Input
Amino acid sequence: MLLFWGCDPETTPWGWSGQQSSRLCYFWSEIGVKSVYVCPDLNYGAAVHADKWIPIKPNTDAAMQLAIAYTWITEGLYDKEYVETHTYGFEEFEKYVMGTDDGIPKTPKWAAEACGVPSRTIKALARQWAKKATSIAHGNGGGYIRSSYSHEPARLEVLLLGMQGLGKPGRNQIKMIEWGLSA
Output
């Protein structure tokens, strides 16, 4: 599964990389890779390629990401061995997600009030992500990386990728459209 978080690989790249991102998205669809778009607007990429579009209030991605982590922790859906051997400080992150430190568990219900995404959708995404090898795709990020406190979803994304075994087959971060290159 590809999770397009805050990007539009169709209209954004035309100024400097042409149709490469578009062609890649069509290829992934043709070979059966599911695409989920999380973005406030039904941008052209989401309209054309999304198997699922999840509209989210602008600049509230961190709440949804924390709720995904909460679901994985409470349901045991993360790669415990990878976290144990490849991460540092997970215990502190877990305390924050579970509300041990501030008394506010970062539940899907809690996140739904902030981000406008129903808790059932957050849980379903968390479970699908844990079940399928999932990579996150970016195309210059849009508001996801260009707003106040945008470091929060960026840092949380890395934590979520780590919880699912970053670098294992299909569990990566994809940067599209930069000068016609994909990495």
The two ends are 17 Å apart (CA to CA). The longest strand covers residues 2-5.
